[in-house]
Each structure stands twice: as structure tokens, then as C-alpha cells.
Design goal:
- With about 130 residues, the protein is an alpha+beta fold.
- It folds into two domains: about 90 residues, VC0802-like; about 45 residues.
- It contains four helices and seven strands, in the order H-E-E-E-E-H-E-H-E-E-H.
- The strands form two sheets. The protein has a four-stranded antiparallel β-sheet, with helices on one face.
- The longest helix has 14 residues.
- The two termini are about 30 Å apart.
């Protein structure tokens, strides 16, 4: 099985960002919360509670509080979980523009949660950066 790309230059040149539809939020629940019906796209167990990454509509319907709303950008290159510097390069670049980002790595791709109001700008920056690396 292909374990993904590790070469940083290839990753940057070939990231091919895709802006996913919808708005996403991070929520937290405690105890044995039945979260399956919410269809989270991500979850993480922390000492303080279970973090859920959900569509904004699902959180609102379940009356779960959240503090910010994000767009989801998927970097469509199959990046290795052992790649060095890929997300660091991206988050550093976005930080230079004052853009917060919550990256999540999954088996095949890296995903960026960015403020909804800045998602078009982030897409432009990532696409231009990919072109610059060619």
C-alpha cells in the first residue's frame, strides 16, 4: 500500500487545495455523549472532554455551543503521515498573513480548518504558493 508522499517540495507543488462545501465547528461534550447521530467528521478524546468536529448545522440542531465557524480545505495530495515540514510550512505562511488555521492530518490527506471569512484568501494563497514552487 502506498504510504503517501514525503518530499516537501513535491508536497508543496502538488497540494491541490479543495474548498469543501459547508461550515464546520469544534465542540466539546463530556461523559458518554451519544455523538454518532451528529455524524462528526473528526473526534478527539481529551482529558477535559470529547472534541467533535461537526457541520455547523448539526451542532446547532443539537444545541452544542461553539466559538468559531470554519471552512474546510482539503489538500488533495496523498501526504505521508511521516512527511516532515508540510503543515509547518503552510501554517507558517498563513500566520504571516494573520490567518489562524487548525490542521488535521488523516491517513490520505491533510485538512485545514480556516476562518470562513478568510477561506477565499487562503485558497488564493495556497494555489499561488503551489504555482511558485513549480
Amino acid at each position: 500500500m502506498n504510504s503517501g508522499e514525503t518530499n516537501l517540495l513535491i508536497l508543496l507543488r502538488s497540494m491541490q487545495p479543495i474548498l469543501q462545501t459547508g461550515e464546520y465547528v469544534f465542540c466539546t461534550v463530556e461523559g458518554d455523549y451519544n455523538y454518532q447521530a451528529l455524524r462528526p467528521i473528526g473526534l478527539f478524546y481529551e482529558t477535559e472532554g470529547l472534541t467533535l468536529i461537526l457541520k455547523r448545522e448539526a451542532a446547532a440542531e443539537a444545541h452544542l455551543p461553539y466559538t468559531a465557524v470554519f471552512s474546510l480545505i482539503t489538500l488533495s495530495i496523498h501526504s505521508s503521515l511521516e512527511a516532515v515540514g508540510f503543515l509547518a510550512a503552510i501554517t507558517t505562511k498563513l500566520a504571516a498573513y494573520g490567518i489562524s488555521v487548525n490542521p488535521v492530518s488523516a491517513y490520505y490527506h491533510d485538512h485545514l480548518f480556516v476562518p470562513v471569512a478568510r477561506s477565499a484568501e487562503v485558497m488564493q494563497l495556497l494555489q499561488a504558493w503551489g504555482e511558485d514552487e513549480r
